[in-house]
Specification:
109 residues; mainly alpha; 4 helices; 85% helix; 0% strand
């Protein structure tokens, strides 16, 4: 088997997807998620220290990011513990979102 045959077979197995590109996209997603969490933490602390109270919407964002990650990993890798974590994170996201919306509505009255 020559080099071209090996490359053709590899492309067929990976459906013309570059493994390096997949890894870069994975790393980019992780960096984006961490960046979002850090930014939410900064905003959350700034709001508390300036007397603005607790913003549950920021917590909802953080838990939604992690819930999405665990959901995709659990489904794709067929790992039950990842799916359980995803359900827990998503439930917390819904709870934090509902609390945030309730606080917004009650403050508007």
């Amino acid at each position: 088997m020559n080099k071209e045959e090996i490359l053709a077979k590899s492309r067929k197995e990976h459906k013309d997807q570059d493994i390096y590109e997949k890894e870069v996209l994975k790393e980019a997603g992780n960096v984006g998620a961490i960046s979002a969490c850090v930014l939410c933490l900064i905003f959350f602390c700034a709001q508390i220290f300036t007397g603005g109270g607790t913003n549950y919407g920021l917590w909802a964002i953080i838990f939604a990011i992690r819930g999405g990650e665990f959901f995709v990993k659990g489904i794709r890798l067929k790992r039950k513990h990842e799916i359980v974590l995803a359900v827990m994170y998503i439930a917390t996201t819904l709870l934090m979102s509902a609390t945030h919306i309730y606080n917004l509505l009650s403050a508007a009255k």
